[in-house]
From TrEMBL:
Cited Gene3D superfamilies: HUPs (3.40.50.620)
Asparagine synthetase domain sequence ranges: 81-152
Protein name as it appears in the record: Asparagine synthase
Example of a GO MF term: asparagine synthase (glutamine-hydrolyzing) activity
Source species: Ferroplasma acidiphilum
One GO BP: asparagine biosynthetic process
InterPro entries: Asn_synthase, Rossmann-like_a/b/a_fold
SUPFAM superfamilies: Adenine nucleotide alpha hydrolases-like (SSF52402)
Length: 166
């Protein structure tokens, strides 16, 4: 992070979406910076997997929480913003989890089939096992990109300066 002009990326991201929140900035900034460094035109993301397969920790912690709100937000806020971010770099997002076929079966993807005790996305883990992916890949604990990259720490330190109007 020391060699990257994070403030420049933040400034540009705020121009793309002036309504972006502090929380959204964390995960969107990681994608935005990555798109600048990726030479390929097409960027394949896992967008939608957490929403469809109950991958967020909050689904484990709150058994009554449904995924509809998160799916709606994904389509109405997150995806349009990310498409603009991709266009800024002349890229195109490929989102396999949001393909028409996946969306057609989304109502059959239940919470009960995806959460057991402290584990989530069980359907995806089962598919990964069946296609012989290494267990250390499909059973590892996920760390959100904004935390693993250090972006979140940076944003916490700079939050007041970045989000004066919030």
């Amino acid at each position: 992070l020391d060699e990257i002009d994070i403030e420049g990326y933040i400034s540009q991201l705020l121009k793309i979406d002036p309504k972006i929140t502090k929380m959204e900035m964390g995960y969107e900034l990681v994608l935005f910076i990555l798109m600048d460094f990726i030479p390929e035109k097409y960027v394949v993301t896992g967008q939608g997997a957490d929403e469809l397969f109950y991958g967020y920790r909050r689904f484990i912690d709150n058994p009554r929480l449904k995924n509809d709100t998160y799916i709606n937000r994904l389509f109405n806020v997150t995806l349009p913003r990310e498409k603009k971010m991709a266009e800024y770099y002349d890229k195109e997002l490929i989102t396999p989890y949001l393909s028409p076929g996946m969306l057609k079966i989304r109502h059959y993807i239940t919470r009960e089939d995806n959460i057991e005790e402290n584990r989530n996305k069980l359907i995806l883990r089962e598919i990964a096992a069946k296609i012989s992916l290494p267990e250390e890949i499909y059973n590892r604990n996920k760390t959100a990109a904004q935390y693993g990259s250090g972006i979140n720490k940076y944003l916490l330190r700079q939050s007041d300066k970045i989000f004066r109007n919030e």
